[in-house]
Amino acid sequence: MTRACTAIAHPNIALVKYWGKRDRPLNLPSTSSVSVTLGGFRTRTTVTWGVAQDGVRIDGRTATGPVADRVRRFLDRVDPKRPPCRVESESDFPVAAGLASSSSAFAALAVAAARVAGLDLDPGALSALARQGSGSACRSIHGGFVHWQRGAAPDGSDSRAVPILPAGAWDLRIVAAVVDAGPKAIGSTEGMERSRLTSPCYPAFVRENERLASWAARCVETRDLLGLVDAMERSTLLMQATMTTAVPPVRYVRPDSLAVVDAVEGLRAQGLTCGWTMDAGPNVKVLCTASEADRVAGILGPLVSAVHVLTPGGPAVVESETALSG
Ligand code: PMV
Fold first, then answer.
1. Are 146 and 161 contacting, i.e. CB atoms less than 8 angstroms apart?
2. Cα 181 to Cα 96: distance, rounded to the nearest angstrom
3. Can you tell me the distance from the alpha carbon of 188 to that of 98, in angstroms, rounded to the nearest whole number?
4. Domains of the chain
5. How far is residue 236's CA from residue 273's CA, in Å, rounded to a whole number?
6. In whole angstroms, what is the distance from residue 19 CA to residue 191 CA?
């Protein structure tokens, strides 16, 4: 029987970072992390189960090599005895530019593939499945504010994301300041692995970041934006300390990124409740109140190539499913 399912997922931005794996094949993290799922940006993925041969298309182009292999390996995890499948995925935002495209890509793929494979997985199990495609994808299964608990089980069964607050429960904005929408030179897996293996700062990151993740989750529960922003910036700086002291160094930050950071800190000095973060790319994401977002975007706009004002978004969902033949 040929079946198709289309799922939609939104990318998420780490407020407290995932940076380093304790188990590489299973994508088990060294530390817990906290994120917000973004509305506005999304990935839509269709998996057709039971076709003549495997095929992967991403944003209208046939994917080959390591990108297609990664998708095929993920489908093998969903069902080791699977038939050939076709995967078609489209994202409406720049991929591989530190805007967390792999998070929405593997969350949408996990939801669509599990459904066509006939697996009845609850959100926790879907999160653990999505994690195996891309670590951060486990957080995009849920909407709003999310805590990925690192877990302790060697098989990764307890390393999954749990929701803290749904999207509508805290009216914040994420202003994405796009310094460069092009693909990054060093992928996040390589960047975090090099940091883990070679940076003398890595143990300090692990120790502090675990504490910051618990603290940030508490700040979300109590809607303490200043506390959350403080945890977010500390986690970002600790992650960057491991990158910049890796051998050879991993550097994503550009002069324009730092100009945005300066501007955000200037706005905070004027009394705005906002803070910045970056991931594996030069783009800066600013967390702020809904009422201050236009002012933040207006100040940052002239410094960068584009700004997007985003709201917290919802969970990954099935959009449609069809039985095509059989
Ligand atoms: O999920 P990955 O393998 O693309 O790693 C994401 C790493 C960061 O975006 C830098 C941090 C995070 O927690 O999302």
1. yes
2. 8
3. 9
4. 2-166 (3.30.230.10), 172-310 (3.30.70.890)
5. 18
6. 9
8 Å CB contact between 133 and 74: yes
pLDDT band at 94 (very low <50, low <70, confident <90, very high): low
| Ligand 1 midpoint to CA 285 (Å) | 14
Please tell me the least confidently modeled range out of 96-100, 162-166, 247-251, 285-289: 96-100
Among 16, 18, 32, 43, residue to substitute to test ligand 1 (most atoms within 8 Å of Cβ): 18
Tell me the CA distances in angstroms from 5 to 87, 139, 322, one per residue in order: 10, 21, 6
DSSP per position, 120-175: ---HHHHHHHHHTT-TTHHHHTS-SEEEEE----TT-TT-EEEEEE-GGGS-EEEE
If one residue of 12, 35, 136, 239 were mutated to test the ligand 1 pocket, choosing by the most ligand atoms within 8 A of its CB, it would be 136
Six token digits for residue 325: 């033949």
CB neighbourhood size of 266 (10 A):
11
Sequence letter at residue 181? A
Rounded alpha-carbon distances, angstroms, from residue 296 to 38, 116, 304: 17, 43, 13
Overall residue count recorded for the chain in this entry: 326
288 Cβ partners below 8 Å, 6+ apart?
A: 172, 173, 175, 272, 273, 274, 275, 296
Model confidence at 182, in pLDDT bands (50, 70, 90)?
confident
Question: For the segment 200-253, what is each residue's pLDDT rounded down to a tens digit?
Answer: 999 999 999 999 999 999 999 999 999 999 999 999 999 999 999 999 999 999
Q: Which residues contact 33 (CB under 8 A, 6 or more apart)?
A: 14, 16, 17, 18, 136, 139, 147, 148, 209, 213
* Distance (Å) from CA 261 to ligand 1 centroid: 20
- Start-to-end CA distance of the chain, whole Å, equals 4
Contacts of 23 (CB under 8 A, 6+ apart): 154, 156
